[in-house]
């Protein structure tokens, strides 16, 4: 299968910004120093991993793999790239180095990864990159930027989905608040993967086949002042095809509903009514209206219900309302009670089930608080807190050298949490008797894989006394080879399947690991052999101090 054919048929187009120069300068200066030192044929293994779960939680969702594969597929320094580097780097750099760069591709790189959409944990490498040292080094920054935000965003979205509950729809409304256009597109893509049902971002809908949703803004309502602003008042009946005067029917309904809803027609805004009638005329089959421009109780609900019932008289059913300010719990319950009262009074059961959408700076705490208070919201539109990941704006993935020319490498630190786990490793997920994931086990690639029903000694990588035997009921090998010999070896799955993978993977975790308050940490261990290997290498590399 050729690269071009695969790209065209299986993978969405690559982001044009993602290219070899989307990197830190020191990657290129290191590449020259390696080249100058005669390390062109050195073979390295790098691990990409993170050290701490985000949002004070105990799980992370891995995302961004498809973009990493596109990057490897298209890695090539263009003539203009080489020209820029010649002009920018020190004049002492030998010209042959630029010839070397120009011919570089990822054909000798092997990339192994955990499946995109999987739940993952600290210290377990998400990607393992093997190949020539120079090219593997040059990939670092770009792979990190492709995985860091994608995984953070998918995790944030998955947490919102978890706390909202499976019966509430979630819409991503964050483009206008996102960190630039690319941040907005990435947020739309990875919030969908994390469990959101749609986005307001039209370009994301086109590029990634995400359902697009939206209503109208307050400006639409305030652009109407009086009923005279309505230019056209007639609508063709859905069944009889006769012309209906929507303005007249809505005015009649508003007068009839006024005593039922205890809302005065004199207090209700005629400009708002004009706006809602005009919007209903434009979208009779998709009428979902914003009702908080002036006053939900005194104006918005009365005007909406009048127009919704007028639409019903013309053979159409309204969709619902959106509330974008105020006490969302109280107003949503008020709206639901209003809809039920009208449904009962006029024998219209469907009216009681009209959709109530809530927006307005919603975050995790807002949703949890609304659940505690009691609300009648069917759908949350979430923007700023979702797409900017305000609770934690970065995941903190790192990319560390763990082997060079078959020799293990370890990075030491006085902060034990920053000591790397050396060597070429495999990762396995061991499941307990109840079917839940119990522990992730790292071991040397030369070791035999753990087996179902066989006792496995699992050790904390750095604390000698923390160890336990596990007899797994199921063993899942976490790594698959996604890129080898210049080709994608496993086709990335469609976004919808990655989205399903997220929920399936989360279901393998116990509830106490996923809870909001004081979640239980998930265990990541090393084999007994890898534990000994780490500590022997640590002693070999740690300097011996001298007391005087």
UniProtKB/TrEMBL annotation:
Record carries keyword Magnesium: yes
Reactions accelerated catalytically: 5-phospho-alpha-D-ribose 1-diphosphate + nicotinate + ATP + H2O = nicotinate beta-D-ribonucleotide + ADP + phosphate + diphosphate
InterPro entries the record matches: Aldolase_TIM, N/Namide_PRibTrfase, NAPRTase_C, NAPRTase_N, Nic_PRibTrfase-Fam, Nic_PRibTrfase_pncB, Nicotinate_pribotase-like_C
Domain Nicotinate phosphoribosyltransferase N-terminal, residue spans: 21-148
All copies of domain Nicotinate/nicotinamide phosphoribosyltransferase, residue ranges: 319-420
Signal peptide: none
Source superkingdom: Eukaryota
Keywords assigned: Ligase, Magnesium, Manganese, Metal-binding, Phosphoprotein, Pyridine nucleotide biosynthesis, Transferase
Annotated Nicotinate phosphoribosyltransferase C-terminal domain residues: 425-533
EC number annotated for this UniProt entry: 6.3.4.21
Gene Ontology annotations of biological process type: NAD+ biosynthetic process via the salvage pathway
CDD domains: NAPRTase_A
GO CC annotation terms, alphabetical: cytosol
One Gene Ontology MF term: metal ion binding
NCBIfam families: NAPRTase_put
PANTHER family assigned: NICOTINATE PHOSPHORIBOSYLTRANSFERASE (PTHR11098)
Function: Catalyzes the first step in the biosynthesis of NAD from nicotinic acid, the ATP-dependent synthesis of beta-nicotinate D-ribonucleotide from nicotinate and 5-phospho-D-ribose 1-phosphate. Helps prevent cellular oxidative stress via its role in NAD biosynthesis.
Name assigned to this protein: Nicotinate phosphoribosyltransferase
